[in-house]
Amino acid sequence: MAETKLYGNKLIPSLSSLPSSTTLRRHVAPFPSLVSFNTPKPPRLRVLSMAIKRSPKRLKYSAPRFTKEGGMLYVEVDELGADTWKLEPVIELLKQGAVGVIPTDTVYAIVCDSKSNSAIERLRRIKNIEPSKPLSILCCSLRDIDTYTTGFPSGDGQGHADIFRAVKHCLPGPYTFILTASKELPKQCVRYGTKTAKYASRKKVGVRMPDDAICQAILEKINAPLISTSVRSPKENEWMVDPVVIADIYGPEGLDFIVDGGVRVADPSTVVDMTGSYPKITRLGKGPKLHWMVAEDDDESAFYVEDLMPSATS
Length: 314
What we know:
Elements: E1 4-7, E2 10-13, E3 24-26, E4 35-37, E5 73-76, H1 88-95, E6 99-102, E7 109-113, H2 117-127, E8 136-138, H3 142-148, H4 164-169, E9 175-180, E10 191-192, E11 203-208, H5 213-222, E12 226-230, H6 243-250, E13 257-260, E14 270-273, E15 280-283, E16 294-295, H7 305-308
Parallel strand pairs: 5-13, 6-13, 8-11, 9-14, 15-16
Antiparallel strand pairs: 1-2, 3-4, 6-7, 7-12, 8-12, 9-11, 10-11, 14-15
């Protein structure tokens, strides 16, 4: 694997060539747009060809551009998580209120620390999300879900099926579950059932536990949920799955870092609303429809609680 990258006319070492103890610092002058490292200069440097496996029409995106003042950190990580030590500077940036892009088991996501109100507001500005629009949270464990939501519905004889056992079988996985938010979740993340807060009866939030080694490593290291929104093209409104293209489009908008886990497939998560009488699929994506889920075009009157109740082997 090559050990250097070429940005402009300067050679800098790749993160993959540095030991885990290497510290990062940012140039102030004379090259404020570069990220540099406190490490001895190698005796010889080799240039990595950035155009490998790129289609000709996208060669202009072959090298992420560091146009943001102070630089933008770009980290390439093995998609199977074999070198997650490279994520340490990303974790530090997140704790300091940074906004960046990470891979999930579906598409790439723009994320920030759930405890940083200023980071949440900046994430909305970067993605151009209205304050009334909901944001999702990425969780590392079911315990996090219990903390930041009221949990999954349990059997109560009023039409709610006890599906917690079934949910455990599909998490981590490519599902977003809409749940009722708890008071622990920042107000910037939730949406109201009506436009007027005075008459809002519930606050809802989308919850994800991605089955992705890189994403799970970040969540484990930061030990807290991340606010998340999927990366779409600002103009075409299509999923963006190539991290170097994301860097080119969203880098100038104010991203602090990008974690490159390879090109993904444009297949978003399946969204399941758990706040109604039945678990209803509002968007069918990568996650398959399970027997205890109701599709939007299904006739709900044909279902009974017993039909949706997961068995011990589900």
